[in-house]
Write a structure and sequence with these properties.
single chain, about 180 residues, mainly alpha, globular
Length: about 180
């Protein structure tokens, strides 16, 4: 039996496509702005005028989320749109992946370890080195056409994580949202 597509799903897909084309790096910019803000506060270099753009972006998305719930994640986030497209493609794959309940619980806890590493290690202590740690940074690079001039970013930790997210998204709806950050359903 074929599942009927609702008008809301069509509107959502259109908005996701528009957001993916017009603001593909919004999620990455939001994440980076949060990190920059935390870093400047932690190292005592916070100046309101220097951080005004970051604050406006963070507060804007926070207010949208507060008023409309997961609207940002479900309609505007390009990373989510990528996952939805991959999951749609993944439904054409003849075999399915089922995560055992115990592994599902552990993977949901893993996201907090990743968040702690990013918040403390990368933002707090500026642990960056010569590699790209963030899959969002690699995603941002490859959502721009000029980013495809080299595939070297896939050879970083961030690139490996992005490839894991891409593969996971083929089999598990919103894989990153489920195991990489706050959504637990």
């Amino acid at each position: 039996m074929k599942k009927k597509i609702s008008p809301v799903q069509i509107v959502r897909a259109v908005i996701q496509l528009i957001a993916f084309i017009t603001v593909p790096a919004l999620f990455i910019t939001l994440f980076s702005s949060t990190g920059g803000l935390i870093t400047s506060i932690a190292d005592g270099s916070f100046v309101l005028l220097d951080n005004l753009g970051r604050l406006v972006l963070i507060l804007g998305v926070f207010l949208i989320t507060l008023v409309w719930g997961r609207f940002f994640c479900g309609f505007i986030c390009s990373f989510g749109a990528m996952q939805d497209l991959l999951n749609f493609i993944g439904k054409l794959i003849p075999f399915k992946v089922k995560i055992p309940e115990k592994a599902d619980k552990w993977l949901k806890l893993l996201k907090y370890a990743v968040l702690a590493f990013v918040a403390v290690g990368v933002w707090g202590f500026s642990v960056t080195g010569d590699t790209v740690w963030s899959p969002w940074t690699v995603f941002g690079i490859y959502t721009s056409l000029s980013g495809w001039s080299s595939l070297k970013y896939f050879l970083t930790l961030g690139g490996a994580l992005l490839l894991l997210i891409i593969i996971g998204s083929l089999f598990i709806e919103r894989f990153f949202c489920r195991y990489g950050r706050g959504q637990t359903s």
